[in-house]
Protein 1
Amino acid sequence: MPRSLKVAKQYRERAKLALKRNGYARQQDLAEALGFARSTVNNFLNGKPVDYLNFLEICEKLQLALDEIADFADEEIPDSTLTSTSVVPSIEKFSIEHLYEALLCLNYTKQEDRFAEFVREHPIGACLIHGEPEFGQEWLLNRLLKLLPVQMTTAFVHRTSFLRVTRSYSLESLWRELAVATGATSSSPTDVAKAVCNLWQSQSVILIFKDVDQLPGAEFLDEFIHKFWHPLAAEACKCSSQTLNDRLIAFLVDSQGRANDWSINCTEILDVNWEPLQLLKLPKITHITRFELAYWLEKQKDKLPQALTVQIEQAVIEILESREFGIPQLVLEAVCKRCGHNWYQSERVWLKF
């Protein structure tokens, strides 16, 4: 069963003010909107324990941050657990398929929502994935690829690294590699762009450029965008694919968080004025919060071992405190370990690109 939570004493007045601020004149009004008993809302507002999922729904309605107002410290722990020092005992290996399905639902929702909105409306575009070290950029990349309305087995996919630019201090080696990969008549960026468009006539084209953070400076990324992506996007807009669902997508992956310090021509907003020539900067990957991890464990408990979900808040505390307080890559490692699997062995299967 879910654990219960209560509003911390210092935030109870804020919770009561949020009731009226969100248009609920009475506790009964909020209770009816949620389909709860009035006593549940009353308990919430007065700092009494409320079922975890009910607590979550009330927070969402009142636009309150659960991980800020909840009193985790005073949460009661069932007597049956008092003899144990850890909520996560040694467990047998849990289904790797179930674990994978569950992990696909943990974190990265802002990035996935933005990307899903983008590919739903636009067949052409370049996206920047970025975050601090060990924030799971490649895991996110592979999750985003699953959102494309295409069969990856039939798509033209080319992966490369900007490290070659760092070694030569020039983009010329990158142009040569792309020319060979795409069958371009020469290694000029314009000819490579035309070759990519020719490929796009019959299939989806996915270009993955890793190690953006290894570029010597922002000017190299600007040169790449202006000399390669702009001509490619402009040409692609004139010669659309023959198949409705085919996409021409470029991913730029920053694994060190350097892109935030660079002044580059990009946008974070998708609106009617957006054009494929503009680099779309996806939301920065952030820490996994206690609230996010707890909510995920509750929602995915049918795919996870019982030892990990029977005492959710204690499991959350142990995972986050042992893993630098929510660094995504480390949280993924910790969850896999508690399910009897090694993340680094599993990612060889899961991370196909």
Note: Residues 43 and 261 are 46 Å apart (CA to CA).
Protein 2
Amino acid sequence: MGPGGAAPWLPPASTEGRSRMSEKPSRKPRTRGNRDGRPYQRKSDGKWVATVYLPSGKRKPVYGDSRTEADSKRKQAQREIDDNQPVTAGRTDTLERYLTKVWLPVTLPQRVQAGKLAESTLDSYRDTCEKHIVPHLGRVRLVDLSTTHIRAWLLELAEKPSGRRRKKLRPGEKKLPPPEKLSTRTVAYSHAVLRKALNDAVDDESVKRNVVLLVDAPTVDRKPPRELTKDEVRALLGAAADHRLWAYWLVLLALGLRRGEGLGIRWEDVDLDAGTVHLRLSVQRMRGEVDEETGRRKGKLVAKGLKTQASKATMKLPAFAVAALREHGARQDDERDAARLWADEGLVFTTTIGTALEPRNVNRMWEDICAAAGVVRCRIHDLRHACGSFLFADGVDLKVIQGVLRHTRLSTTSEIYVHLLEEVKDGAADAMDGMLVDLTGEREKRRSAS
């Protein structure tokens, strides 16, 4: 090294040259103008990029495959900013991305956490999005979604098979029927779920308007429930008489319980001496989200509190049901003693090792009972309707039936059993006709004599 650390093969620095360089006028950098954001081509992928500035001062890039396209989107975005509208130009979020990355994993769970939405409702929304919305509309960009898309989607759903074709014949069938189409209720529910999702998208300023609001959902006609006759119920109870869950089926019918409400009864909520049961919980299967690593659902059984005050009630048990529960408790004690492991969860109706019953397995048990009884197309929920129908036929007041079934509004009870009310009205008209004939008999005699 030379003096001052310079390498010996380099000539000494010239102070004269340094002086001339310092005197050379500096060049001003080229500018694009005062934040005009005109398009430029990106070297990495050849895309054209233009820029607008939001009222906050933040830069907002928009993209195009050509200079003209990028500049057109820039002008559109600027107009939206000037009109105080959400900037949609250049936005590429699809409906699928919004539903699966924003609405289902972020927006709705926050509502569940705040107590504004039931976890089971979130589970139902997720299922509907996966089955009936994303496969049909998922690839459409949010900003491009139109009423034409929505109308075409509803028509597709109306023709969509409701599930896999059955492989087994039911009692009395000679051949398998064609696959059933989605019910009008399912189509209308899908419409409602998408409407709610896009309402939130508008609130998030992801879209300007909710196009689903501009398209009518199909009208759902409330059909009267499957009306079991007393002979059918007698056959069902006969087929279930030796079942280990005999008391469960009996309590469902006696109290008009829903499937999950019966599965959620705990011994601490039952007072056999007083003949009462306090309803607090419902056991349900939550489908959950799909695990990204395994591709399987993170489903689970949950015991959740009943959602309305009307549902949380202390019910009086018929003496026959009390006796059945005593017998069931003794059988459960024997199962506990015989089991190597017992999950003491305090539930009345359990598996043979004390765990909560899987609702789908309960459905299969009921299908076997129906097949043995020769009763077709009968759901567990039809026992609840049978409870209300039998009470009404026995002359029990509609207000009392509302209390038994724990409907929040009397109108719900009357809507479900409106067909029975019509029969009562017909009977009243016939009775009045007889009275009128009797009351006017003398007058008719005089008229015929004249």
Note: Residues 95-165+180-214 form a domain with the DNA polymerase; domain 1 fold (CATH 1.10.150.130).
Protein 3
Amino acid sequence: MSDMPMELVEDVELELPSVGVQALEEISAAEAVHSVEELIARGKQRGMITQEEILQLVPQIEENVDKLGEIYEALASAGIMIEDGLVEEDAFTIEFENEPMVVLDDGLDFGDNGVGDTVRMYLHEIGRVPLLSGDQEYRLAKQIEQGAKAQAKLKKQADLSSVEREAIERAILIAEDARHHLAEANLRLVVSVAKKYMNRGLSLMDLVQEGNMGLLRAVEKFDYRKGYKFSTYATWWIRQAITRAIADQARTIRIPVHMVETINRLTKVSRHLAQELDREPSMLELALECRITSILPDNQRLQLQLNPAAIDPDCKEVYDPYLALMLAQASEKVAAIMEQADEANPLFLRINECRDLLKPQLRRNPTSQELALECHVPEILAEELRIRLQCGPAALVATCKQHDPLLRQALERAANKVRDIHKAALEPVSLETPVGQEEDSNLGDFIEDSKIEAPSDAATNQMLKEAVEQVLDQLSERERLVIKLRYGLQINEDERRQLSAVSSKPRENELALENGRHNTLEDVGKIFDVTRERIRQIEVKALRKLRHPKLGKKLRDYLE
């Protein structure tokens, strides 16, 4: 196994085509071999491995069929059974909370909208086609291959005899019938895969249709010489077609593959923390626990977890050499147990299971210290000590009292990234969505229009305008117009005509008559054909009148 050449992608690209996003990083060949060894170890522990777990190790299966065959040979030599079961949740499909997976069975109620009848008719039709045995799959696949060769020969050689041409055409027809037969016999496989993706944004029939397209692709690509069942190979193509359709069609705004993975991991971490804390976790807590390098680098995350005083200058934790010694002894116990690798030892099985859980989170092999803290085995580390270490990791760091503002800033940036990811996961809602039991109104009817003035404010402003007009009516005509021009008050049509009549250049003064414009003394003087000093005197006289207590009383209530 160590010599097996293999390039694995960190997250198998089963669904979402990357458009304008970074390509997924590839795992090194050494890590790929280690992943296969882990798969074998997990199979020995459970006694079986599912087809889904195998397919997750091999990206671009049409280009890596040989590598898939090597994995099957390694599992067979280890005596591990391979089951056809599928993993219920897909790592590349966003998990919607409070939406349970729907299992399709004979008792499923499709409702009375006509869709259920369509599904039942389809299931009835595909159920009439018998399943194929391994020998039948082999024969049909061989006929398909012979038909492809005959098709290629027909294109290359034009000077064929009538007998040869007839034989080639007959082989092509047989291959076409074989394609139809192989596809029709596996339509139930498409339904069994498609039902696991219900409530993800597409109807069941849409999912089945997309899965059927993947099935046809599998029929064309299947290599019967590899020795494994057609359903094993077709499952990958069906899942790929369905998940691509979900990614491209289910959401109004498409989310790239790396963001989907991040959202899923944050969702799982959020649920885990909510159970532990009995409340919704904060963005800071999610940033620390999600173990996503793009949000918070591992070195900074470890510094923050081991050194809480770095972001909290008031931290009262002190170095505890006893706890440090206990953890060191527990780490030595874990290392010794893992070195012995005694499968009869329940502690080894527990630590190995914990290691399998931690490795995907850390993106590396966990240390003995991390295993000692996470395995929850009292024989290795007392529960009381483990809780003290997890709640107060600064007890292991003698220099934990050093406040680091840069780490604090890094954590805040990580929290902002988590917040942005939560926003990206939100589904847009149409403003035309019906609201209420009668559905006689739309969501848009209840959204405030910030550009429109509130009714109460509009009424208050109208009353203020009327009160100002009443006060200005106590002034002479010229004084009233000067005040309005100087302070940008509204000028009605009658006043505009009066100003045009007294002005010698009405067209040049149109700009000064705009409502809301504060004019200078010189501008107002040009309108009345007087000096700016005369306008100042008129303004001072008018303001003196407006300061009279009797007039000021009418406007005092609007000052609040």
Note: The beta strands are 8-9, 26-27, 48-50, 81-83, 434-435, 441-442.
Protein 4
Amino acid sequence: MSKSRDTSGTPGAARVPKRTLAAVVTSQIRERILAGGFPPGTPMNEVELATRFQTSRGPVREALHRLVQEGLLVGTPHKGISVRVLTPDDLDDLYFARAAIERAALVRLIRRGASAALIANLEQAVKQLALAVEHQDWLQVSAADLRFHVHIVEAAGSERLTLMYRSLAAQSRLGLNLLVGTYKGRQDLVDEHEQLLSLLASGDRSGLLRTLDKHFGDALDTLRHHREPAADVAEPAADADPTDPQEGA
């Protein structure tokens, strides 16, 4: 009768479960996409990714399929999987969906009253946004911008809306990251978020929803304007600094 070996003290014996490893790889790839390390249109090669993340192809394959489901990657027959390139129709649909969810969240928050914790979180996001604008760091601008909006949806208390919105926010980063290199000063972006915060704190429903619509409309116009010259696939940034994969309007 064979005895099972106790490998608890053996170096390297503790292995990360396959499903957990796939989740880790998913997070790492997502972070690089959202930080601009894998620009839109970048092919996602299983072998290269497995080497990069020091794992087998199985977890990488599962990670890629998860990110396709999240909308960050797209699979094309005979071409494989690549980072999604947002079309004008994609941008229209993305901001239409975001506006619908955020309007619903704001209506609930106005009815209930915004908590002190939410106001504090939004104030912090605006400060981070202002600092990023001051330093002309567009990746951090987009992260702080979207963080502001994610806080609003989370505070509404709907788990399903939050899950949907986080996916939409991540996809928005694909578009916002295209603005890197086109920065010309965006104090207006800070002002718009300060106005949204003020209207929410005061409970001005009509003013808040009207300002939100204008805010999203302006963002969509900016993305449309810059999309053509900025949409060329760039080389991945070797030293891209990952940010929260689910953050960033």
Note: Residues 2-14, 229-248 have pLDDT under 50 and may be disordered.
